[in-house]
Amino acid sequence: MASGRIVGIDFGTRRVGIAVSDPLRMFSQPLGTYDPSGAVEMLRGLRDRDGIDTVVIGWPLDEEGREGPATRRVDEFVRRLRNALGRITVVRVDERYTSEAVKDTLAGGFGARTRGRVDTAVAGLLLQEYLDALPGEGNV
Fold first, then answer.
1. What is the DSSP string of 53-81?
2. Domain 5-133 adopts which CATH fold?
3. If DSSP codes are grouped into helix, strand and coil, which group holds residue 41?
4. Spatial separation of the C-alpha atoms in residues 72 and 94, rounded to whole Å
5. Are 71 and 54 in contact, with CB atoms under 8 Å apart?
6. What percentage of the chain reaches a pLDDT higher than 70?
7. Which residue(s) pair with 67 in the sheet?
8. Strand 52-59 to strand 28-34: parallel, antiparallel, or no bridges (unpaired)?
9. Which terminus of the chain has a smaller tally of CB atoms within 10 A, N or C?
């Protein structure tokens, strides 16, 4: 089994939602929402403490499945991560409709505090779907 954690990221220019796998790579655990610079620093600390092998990041394709300005912003953030974290595997996953799916499950209004919860929940959802698809890594 690999030694580092798998991290899920929902990138936004203001907020970055982050989730992390448990050591057995079975479950996604929310870590929180950070501004982009704070997210890089938090991930650097996580790498130093627990190790990071893989980053699963939402890939914001448009309705027709095409790349555009949003995917270019994610690519720039991925470059920042690679500069800060060194050698990591980055997996881009289609994040279309994930925010809507999460919003449907969260109770309450959608103020600024809730938007941060949505970002973290989306990161967790992206990561959990990735973990569920991994062959033989703790999956029963």
1. EEEEEEE---TTS---HHHHHHHHHHHHH
2. Nucleotidyltransferase; domain 5 (3.30.420)
3. helix
4. 14
5. no
6. 81
7. none
8. unpaired
9. C
Tokens read off for 55: 């980053």
- 3-class state of residue 40 by DSSP: helix
Per-domain residue ranges for the chain?
5-133
Structure tokens at 129: 């779907």
Rounded to whole angstroms, how far apart are CA atoms 4 and 72?
27
Report residue 117 as tokens.
């919860």
Give the helix ranges, DSSP H, for the chain. Answer: 36-50, 69-85, 98-105, 112-133
At 52-78, the pLDDT tens digits run: 999 999 999 988 889 999 999 999 999
Cα–Cα distance for residue pair 127/63, rounded to 1 Å: 22
Cβ atoms of 60 and 97 within 8 Å: the answer is no
120, 99 contact by CB (below 8 A): no
Long-range contacts of 63-68 (CB under 8 A, 24+ apart): 63/96, 65/94, 65/96
The rounded distance, in Å, linking the Cα atoms of 113 and 116 is 5
